[in-house]
Amino acid sequence: MADARHSLEMGDKFPYDGGADFWGDKSPSPTATRDWAHRAARGVLADLCDRRGIKHELDEVDHDVRAELTESLADIIRLARSAVHVPVADDET
């Protein structure tokens, strides 16, 4: 669980879908997540960006595609939650 918590925190601090202006600033403020699934998607991407080989490929992705990728992951995560009927507490957002 500690690794998962770390990935969520890194996704909060350094959002993959932050956009060109976020990544171009020397002291950026993270953009807000839209919901728990968007935060989870950022956490997954932060975990992937911490892995050698994958990180280098993900760094090369254009910012508009980063946003699409993050939203697609969030949609999959939302669908998975609804498909298995696992309740998620509001305080986990």
Structure overview:
- The chain is built from 5 helices and no strands.
- It is mostly helical.
- It has one domain.
- Helix 1 (2-13) packs across helix 3 and helix 3 (36-49) crosses helix 5 (63-84).
- The longest helix has 22 residues, at 63-84.
- The two termini are 16 Å apart.
* Largest sheet descriptor: none
Helix content: 55-70%
Distance between the termini: 16 Å
How many helices? The count is 5
Task: Briefly summarize what is shown.
This protein is mainly α. The protein has 5 helices and no strands. The longest helix has 22 residues, at 63-84.
Descriptors:
5 helices, 93 residues, globular, mainly alpha
Question: How are the SSEs ordered, and which strands pair?
Answer:
Layout: H1 2-13, H2 20-24, H3 36-49, H4 54-59, H5 63-84
